[in-house]
Each structure stands twice: as structure tokens, then as C-alpha cells.
Design a protein that fits this description.
With 253 residues, the chain is an alpha+beta fold. 40% of the residues lie in helices and 25% in strands. It contains ten helices and eight strands. Strands 2-1-5-4-3-6-7-8 form an eight-stranded antiparallel β-sheet, sandwiched between helices. A hairpin with a 4-residue loop joins strand 7 and strand 8. Helix 7 crosses helix 10 and helix 8 packs across helix 9.
Length: 253
């Protein structure tokens, strides 16, 4: 297994202020509540502590994806997790981490906890690579507005391949997409769905064929085909599964 230099992933331009015991105790109840709620989720979840540069809490799905056997002890460290990411993709993660922190610091402090970072990475278990979408949301900030603790959910990606980093904003009308070629964030408007597009996705999720969908919405099959093709192009996806995943991940349906 390749050694990971942890300093690369948490080399900030300025250090965090020290968190006092009083501040920690004040926020501890929030962390405990998230831990309690998260027990009911079957998807991959973890809490990450940016002050320590390590997991605060990890839930079973991540162990499964990484193939780590903890003998019933729920403990895995971030360094171990990084070793399950292909070496070439660690460089992608490193760049996303650095550039997202830079963008995050430009946001008004009151909007930072409502901004969500999302990206795709492969996790390798016993030689098998699984592409996973990571969606991180800050739930606690340090006194000077940096991320202290973040909640991450892990799910199926809407797009293929590693990267695809975006930061969704609180207004839900815009997002920033990271261009790995140009090494810059590009501001875009969040796609919206019209009634027909929403119906097509919902009915497709229920297993309806295009003929059945056409009959349900009182349109021709050709109209349904054209609508789906235009939707795929606009969402930059290639299948109804990817379109559904994108819509669910971005709260479009």
C-alpha cells in the first residue's frame, strides 16, 4: 500500500484558532444528534473533523466500500481511507480540497454552512474499483468561519469518471463547477425541470416503459423520446439512471 503524506491534504494557508472546551461542549450536542440520526441511514456516511484531519465518526457502508475489517470496532482513519483511492485520483482530491477551501473563504460566513461540495472518486476494495459520489456539507465552523466538522454522504454518482467537483449554494439557483483543465471554478445556473420532464423521470423510476409514459401523460412516444434526449443533453448525462441520480442528488424531484 502506498504511503500517504497527510500534510498535503491539510496544508492550510493559516492555522485554525484553538477551540476552547466551552465551545466544544456547546457544539457536542449537535455532533451527538447527527450520530444518532445517521444510525438510521443505509448509505455511506461519515463525520470529518478538519481540526484533527481525521474522521470523527464513520458508519458501516464506508467499511464495506473499503473492505476494512475492524472486528466490530467502528474505527477507521482518514489515512487508511486515502490508501483505498487510486494514487492518480488522490491528486484530483488534493486539488479539489485546495481549490474548494479557497472558494469557500470567499463566501459570506452566513452562507458557508449551506454550501455543499460534491465530487466523484473511486474506492478500491480487493482490486475492484467502485465510483462513489461524495457530498460534504459543513455542520460546524470555527470562530473565524473555517470548516470545523463536515457531514459527508456517499452515493451513486450521476456522471461517470472521477472529479466532477461542484459546490452548490444556498440559493439553489447557482453552483460552481471546477474545471480540472483550466484549474478554475466556473459559475453556472442550476438546471430546472418542467412538468413533463419531471413526470418522465418519476414514471421511469417506477419502471414504466416509454409507451406507458406516453399514455400516462397523453403525449406521443416520439415526444417522450425527444424530451428525454433534450433532458440528457442539458443535464450532461447518458442514461435515464444517470438522469434520475442527478435529479435526486440536486433536489430536482
Amino acid at each position: 500500500t502506498n504511503t500517504v503524506n497527510m500534510e498535503h491534504y491539510f496544508k492550510l494557508p493559516h492555522s485554525f484558532p484553538e477551540i476552547t472546551q466551552e465551545e466544544f461542549e456547546k457544539n457536542k450536542c449537535i455532533v451527538d444528534a447527527v450520530k444518532e440520526i445517521s444510525q438510521n441511514f443505509n448509505q455511506g456516511l461519515y463525520l470529518f473533523d478538519h481540526l484533527k484531519g481525521d474522521f470523527l465518526q464513520v458508519f458501516p457502508k464506508l467499511y464495506e466500500l473499503c473492505g476494512e475489517n475492524t472486528n466490530g470496532i467502528q474505527e477507521i482513519h482518514y489515512e487508511t481511507y486515502l490508501q483505498h483511492i487510486p494514487e492518480e485520483e488522490r491528486q484530483i482530491l488534493l486539488e479539489i480540497n485546495e481549490r474548494s477551501r479557497e472558494l469557500f473563504r470567499t463566501l459570506p460566513i452566513e452562507k458557508r454552512k449551506s454550501s455543499i461540495l460534491s465530487y466523484n472518486l473511486h474506492l478500491v476494495c480487493n482490486g475492484k474499483k467502485t465510483l462513489v459520489n461524495h457530498k460534504l456539507r459543513p455542520i460546524m465552523l470555527t470562530p473565524n468561519g473555517n470548516v470545523w466538522i463536515a457531514l459527508c454522504t456517499m452515493q451513486l454518482p450521476a456522471r461517470k469518471g472521477p472529479g466532477h467537483a461542484i459546490i452548490q449554494h444556498a440559493d439553489n439557483h447557482t453552483y460552481d463547477e471546477y474545471d480540472m483543465q483550466g484549474h478554475e471554478w466556473i459559475r453556472r445556473r442550476t438546471p430546472t425541470l418542467n412538468e413533463l420532464e419531471r413526470d418522465i423521470l418519476i414514471l421511469s423510476a417506477r419502471g414504466h416503459t416509454m409507451t406507458e409514459i406516453a399514455a400516462e401523460v397523453h403525449k406521443s412516444v416520439n415526444t417522450i423520446k425527444t424530451c428525454k434526449w433534450n433532458l440528457f443533453k442539458r443535464l450532461d448525462v447518458k442514461s435515464i439512471t444517470e438522469a434520475l441520480t442527478y435529479a435526486i442528488n440536486n433536489n430536482l424531484i
